[in-house]
Specification:
This protein is of the alpha/beta class. It has 10 helices and 8 strands. The relative contact order is 0.13.
Length: 277
């Protein structure tokens, strides 16, 4: 493994007596078991379509089929370097979040086309994966209003943080922005990737085959002006940029750079960065 590959490989930086492969398998096992618990104990409406392919779906988890008015929606977008994991391992937070409030929450586990799923053709490119987030935001707003949700809170981890930041940095018609972002009350960007150029030179790029145009259009750190323009349509949104205590230094740097670019652009938002313990 080259030094650059190691810098972009989170499993190489674990502070436990585990091999990198064991780290990945342990993560998959823990999140899958938590998600299976959610499917056993919560009401689940599965495979709500939001985009062009059968992979553009999400699952809704609630305490019952009848959602109390005013429940917040919490949306989780998984990581896996745009080529691993799915919504099947992404509901692990649903039980604890639903138990944290008397009326529960509407928890959403998102699936998206992976770069390794070449049968989806152009939808499996970075540009295709990234642009599908527009459809996701629109669909979530429709569901949130149908269920009378009071707010939408987003959590994105690793590649999911990249897609979440990207979703909020895409071009939307000016007359749609207030409707799309009014309910968005918080973003949790956890150990995200915000600049894609280094990825082009690592093992991660093998299934992605990033073009220079995709790097420019799909790197959130290069689209901060659009991010701020969109997020200002939510008057009280809070953006948390988070990285792990024992994270690879590369991911700490990514988080700090993204925070500083947003901050220096006079974003006018409630913006925080922190180390996750």
């Amino acid at each position: 493994m080259t030094p650059l590959d190691k810098a972009w490989s989170p499993s190489q930086w674990i502070h436990r007596d585990l091999t990198p492969q064991e780290v990945v398998l342990n993560h998959q096992s823990v999140t899958l078991k938590g998600s299976e618990l959610a499917r056993r104990n919560l009401y689940c409406k599965a495979n709500v379509r939001y985009g062009a392919t059968a992979k553009n779906v999400f699952d809704l988890y609630t305490t019952s089929p009848n959602v109390p008015t005013g429940c917040p929606m919490v949306v989780y977008i998984h990581g896996g370097y745009w080529q691993y994991l799915s919504k099947e391992e992404s509901a692990f937070l649903a039980p604890s979040l639903n138990a944290s409030r008397p009326d529960g929450v509407v928890f959403v586990a998102v699936d998206y086309v992976l770069a390794s799923e070449k049968e989806h053709e152009e939808h499996a490119s970075m540009a295709g994966i990234y642009s599908a987030m527009q459809d996701l935001l629109r669909a979530l707003n429709v569901v949130a209003r149908k269920l009378n949700c009071s707010a939408i809170h987003f959590i994105g981890h690793s590649a999911g943080a990249h897609l979440l930041a990207g979703m909020c940095s895409l071009d939307y018609p000016s007359d749609q922005r207030p409707w799309l972002f009014k309910l968005v009350k918080s973003l949790w960007l956890v150990s995200g990737v915000y600049e894609l150029e280094p990825i082009r030179h690592t093992y991660v790029n093998e299934p992605l085959q990033l073009s220079s145009a995709e790097v420019e259009a799909c790197s959130p750190v290069r689209q901060v002006e659009k991010f701020i323009r969109n997020m200002k349509n939510s008057s009280d949104a809070v953006v948390h940029i988070v990285y792990g205590e024992f994270e690879a230094p590369t991911f700490e740097l990514e988080s700090l750079q993204y925070f500083h670019v947003c901050f220096m652009d006079d974003c006018g938002m409630n913006l925080f960065w922190r180390r996750r313990r």
